[in-house]
Description:
Histone-fold; CENPT protein
Amino acid sequence: xxxxxxxxxxxxxxxxxxxxxxxxxxxxxxxxxxxxxxxxxxxxxxxxxxxxxxxxxxxxxxxxxxxxxxxxxxxxxxxxxxxxxxxxxxxxxxxxxxxxxxxxxxxxxxxxxxxxxxxxxxxxxxxxx
Length: 129
């Protein structure tokens, strides 16, 4: 008797890949743009790689500190007060330099409108809490 060829079974792939999951990163273009804005001079590729590593470590430490502050307060959400405490501990926010002044000095207008409350007609405050 003649045997018909049997289709080969292909093992199913699991939905997960074998690669290690990567942590989200700040886009290189954003770091480069910010650094160029403040440096105002050309930067070598090696120096920029060091700036990238430093900024990544800084933001990791910043986020873990904010997480610790919220956890200490018994919350699961980071609030503005946590950020203000962190900036005070770093020496960026003082009695002479409040957080709103830093926001006005370094952020564009569209972000300022989102972060600094402003009274408008009709006795409303924008942004509302």
